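Work Package 4 report. The design task specified in the project plan requires that, given a folded chain encoded as structure tokens, an amino acid be chosen for each position. We show below one input record used in the internal validation round.
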């Protein structure tokens, strides 16, 4: 029923077309392997994957792509963009979402039969995530509740090993303006085609509570793969290689590669 309502809405109120920014790394990759499409979290763009996770993925032979979210779009528009980009790729794609991007991927999976999916530090439970943000960073979070900018801090995003200058440079680049639906959204639809789904995160994440990680993983039939000591921003934290290598190892087993 939810899928039918979404399709009816697409006909009566179509998503506004935009020019999409996609960063790709495909040279010297294996065209027989499924491409990976990375979807960033709140305040991030394709740049968040371009430094580490895209080249690490391409080095393992997988064509790698990252999508920058459209400015000001709602959840339906962001999921629509993921579906459109994934459908344009030459092979059935693996969707990888980080943070709020994992929620977008979860919605996109209701429309696109992904080869597999990875939800990294997924912000799927809006109210627990809001509570965690208020506890960890009340002064940075309160303006966002009233439509302002969400100012995340170092302790929310990174482990203690990331150099201060590097953390500051990333934080200065973020422009996070969450929409109310990040908290009030309906549950994500059932994935089309029942793809394998891996949930990864950190027990030390100050954005996504551990119980939320467990609930998300249980919903998709597994347990979360954990990386202690890391913050929420897995693709940019100092130990960024550990989660992406584990993700690619898991994917290789799922594909029999």
């Amino acid at each position: 029923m939810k899928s039918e309502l979404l399709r009816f809405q697409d006909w009566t109120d179509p998503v506004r077309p935009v020019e999409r920014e996609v960063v790709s790394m495909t040279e010297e990759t294996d065209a027989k392997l499924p491409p990976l499409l990375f979807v960033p979290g709140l305040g991030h763009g394709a740049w968040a994957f371009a430094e580490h996770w895209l080249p690490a993925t391409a080095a393992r032979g997988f064509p790698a792509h990252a999508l920058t979210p459209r400015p000001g779009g709602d959840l339906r528009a962001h999921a629509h963009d993921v579906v459109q980009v994934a459908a344009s790729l030459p092979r059935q794609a693996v969707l990888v979402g980080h943070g709020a991007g994992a929620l977008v991927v979860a919605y996109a999976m209701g429309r696109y039969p992904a080869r597999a999916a990875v939800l990294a530090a997924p912000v799927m439970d809006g109210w627990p995530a809001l509570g965690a943000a208020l506890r960890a960073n009340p002064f940075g979070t309160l303006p966002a509740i009233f439509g302002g900018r969400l100012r995340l801090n170092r302790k929310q995003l990174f482990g203690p090993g990331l150099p201060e200058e590097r953390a500051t440079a990333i934080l200065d680049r973020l422009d996070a303006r969450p929409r109310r639906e990040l908290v009030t959204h309906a549950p994500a639809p059932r994935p089309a085609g029942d793809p394998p789904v891996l949930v990864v995160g950190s027990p030390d994440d100050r954005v996504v509570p551990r119980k939320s990680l467990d609930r998300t993983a249980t919903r998709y039939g597994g347990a979360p793969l954990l990386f202690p000591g890391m913050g929420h921003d897995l693709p940019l934290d100092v130990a960024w290689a550990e989660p992406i290598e584990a993700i690619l190892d898991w994917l290789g087993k799922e594909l029999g590669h």
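The longest helix spans residues 241-255. Validation will be extended to a larger panel in the next phase.
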